[in-house]
Design goal:
There is one protein chain. This protein has 339 residues and is mostly helical. It is 44% helix and 2% strand. A hairpin with a 6-residue loop joins strand 1 (289-290) and strand 2. Helix 3 (51-64) runs parallel beside helix 14 (299-311), helix 8 packs parallel to helix 10 and helix 11 packs antiparallel against helix 12 (252-262).
Length: 339
């Protein structure tokens, strides 16, 4: 799956065309299917470090659009497993170093296509090997490193809880310490940062609230305070930004919207205006979504725009599970979160 941007652009503000409020499902499906056919473009190779993430973004967008079979299942499984290392972790593409973020995407893909049995059959250590790799990245203070080089970030903590819950291996880590670390990242405005003392940011809020949701500790969130901060992210055109004084971006339809959903405050934003903004970010001719109207489309903004529509119950989009970022309809066969 390529992270190449374009070739199309979202429509400009004020185009006023009657079709602007329609989700062009078929064109988005064809756009995603085309992404791995652009190997003659330099940008295809310059974004190889995001290849596995891109597969997950494209696959999830297709599932949300009701086209789960639009990508070849076996080829998808084969590619994911080709990215695995002997230590259980996954890299962005074959030959890339293992990292938490790619490992999480790998697990999410395999769960989405119901291929955990393939992981057990074809990789040394199976799902337990993946769980061991993740658990060994937990630090004494409860935080998680992204890889062997030690960078810490609340994204990695959330990723660990997300993947281990999907693998039914949460007992491999110290959840109470992870929760304590998340709480250390809380700020006076109700938000959370990437580390203790860092400013609140909608993306980091999503991962921290998502981690607390998986750990069944949403009781620790100041819902009213956080709800106010998140709802203030909506701009006049209905779009959402990630922090004060920043431009709106369609990806925050997910980061802000899912956080509000987890704390029961999604009704604190105007859903109709948000839906209009997201749909204005489409390329109605070639498919895909951009960060904002008039910009070039890419698969990252496409999946998060569609996920935002899912959150607000837009017709024709499948429901999604906010803390897990997986389809609500997936038959996981178990409770993903801590009871």
């Amino acid at each position: 799956m390529s992270l190449v941007s374009g070739p199309g652009r979202a429509q400009e503000y004020g185009s006023g065309l009657p079709g602007e409020l329609q989700l062009v499902v078929d064109k988005h499906v064809r756009y995603i299917q085309s992404l791995d056919k652009r190997k003659d473009e330099l940008e295809y190779w310059l974004t190889e470090h995001l290849r596995l993430n891109g597969v997950y973004w494209g696959l999830t967008a297709l599932y949300l659009l009701g086209h789960p079979d639009a990508l070849p299942r076996q080829e998808t499984i084969d590619f994911v497993l080709s990215c695995q290392h002997t230590n259980g972790g996954f890299g962005a593409a074959p030959g890339h170093d293992a990292h938490m973020l790619y490992t999480v995407s790998a697990v999410q893909i395999l769960v989405t296509v119901d291929a955990l049995d393939d992981l057990d059959r074809r990789s040394k250590g199976g799902r337990k090997g993946v769980g061991t790799y993740i658990s060994q990245l937990q630090n004494p203070d409860g935080s998680f490193a992204g890889d062997e080089w030690g960078e810490t970030d609340t994204r990695f903590l959330f990723g660990a809880l997300n993947a281990l819950s999907l693998l039914q291996l949460l007992p491999l880590i110290d959840i109470s310490k992870a929760v304590s670390y998340v709480q250390a990242c809380a700020n006076f405005d109700g938000g959370y940062g990437l580390s203790p003392g860092a400013e609140s940011h909608a993306g980091q809020i999503y991962v921290c609230v998502g981690a607390l949701s998986i750990a069944n500790r949403l009781d620790l969130v100041d819902r009213d305070c956080l709800g106010r901060w998140l709802s203030e992210r909506q701009r006049d055109d209905g779009g959402l930004n990630g922090r004060p004084e920043k431009l709106q971006d369609v990806c925050y339809s997910w980061w802000v919207g899912s956080s509000l959903a987890m704390i029961g405050k999604l009704h604190w934003i105007n859903k109709e205006r948000l839906a209009k903004f997201i749909l204005l970010c489409q390329d109605r001719e070639l498919g895909g979504m951009a960060d904002r109207p008039g910009d070039m489309v890419d698969v990252f903004h496409t999946v998060f725009g569609i996920a935002g529509l899912s959150l607000i119950g837009f017709a024709g989009v499948e429901p999604i599970d906010p803390p897990m970022f997986t389809m609500s309809s997936l038959d996981l066969g178990y409770k993903a979160r801590v009871e």
